[in-house]
Design brief:
The protein is an all-alpha fold. 71% of the residues lie in helices and 3% in strands. The protein has a 3-stranded antiparallel β-sheet. The chain crosses the membrane at residues 22-42, 62-82, 89-110, 122-141, 153-173, 193-215, 227-252, 258-281, 312-333, 339-359, 366-385.
Length: 400
Amino acid sequence: MAVSPPSPAAVPAVPAPRLDRLGVIVALLAMAGAGVLPFAAFKANRIVPGDPLSILGALPSGQAVLLYGVIAAGACVAVLRVRNLWRLAAGLCVIGALALMLGAAASFLTPDGNRVARVSPAAGFWLLVFAFALMVADALARLRPGPWTRLALLVLIASAGAALLWGGVWGDVSILREYASRGAAFWAEARTHVVLSLGSLAAAAVVGVPLGLFCHRRRRLRIGVLNVLNVVQTVPSMALFGLLIAPLAWVAAHVPGAAALGVSGIGFAPAMVALFGYSLLPIVANTVAGLDAAPETVREAARGMGMTPRQVLFGAELPLALPVILTGIRIVLVQNIGLATIAALIGGGGFGVFVFQGIGQTAMDLVLLGAVPTVALAIAAAVVLDAMVDLTGPRKARGA
């Protein structure tokens, strides 16, 4: 007796795997970085263009296959809708593997005893790092870690990077060879860059927060002050640096003691003044916005308790406005870290010295020596100040 096959309705449907839209983009970028673009470039010296090499050409076959496998596994995790913690771990693992294999490629390609040849990361390496950094950022956004968790993750990543640099893994990579011949100058310019960024921020906070309080109390003057600061903000940085040369040179020549304090037409002084000018608008505007956002009921309750206007300001309004003020300070710090690079064009120092020296010498490895720490410093500053904003905000909003 023949048995009839089960009807289609009786066969359970196998659910199709759900795909993550951003993960598909990450996987496509990873495919382009690993299969189309070069992973590293070998140069006979620091200024020649160099020969682009794929992963198979830059690494021994075993390491190349291993790296392809790690990238493929990371792309699969990105595409599928898996737990966000797994996505975060997979993205960090792929980025770590890329960093380790770049150091291995530099050691493999550089002839023994050759101190002139350079092995640089190529477009494929940077695209792969960008793709999986995007995956890490997306996983963190979905996980919504608290401020202390974000700070701990920053410390962990910084420690891993320090171990990579000081452990000798990247000893033959071009950017480290540039650093080897400029170590003392690098740390001197790093100090200058930090002083420019933090010094201008501190001066702007000392002036900007009281000015914001004044604008909050005197609403008729608010529009005029903010419009003036808006005009300063719209002036291109190079133009502002140039505009400051003549007046500061006059001050150095005619004001007793100004030159002894370091004031001059070019150098550190105009860079500091320009960064100070750019810093005022976000701090003043956020101070005004934070104070305006304080609920009127809070002010009435404070006055009903017998508080003086000064006590209302420092005991109720400013604590409520502090997260918004810190957000303005965060914007300023990240902005100043980037703008301080341009200050090197007028002798202000900072990491921009290496950037513009590299451009002038057609040495992209020297450009990276100035650009990479600038980006790392800006990201670290953003993470730290974002955590501070969360810690000063309402407890229920922390981690959001």
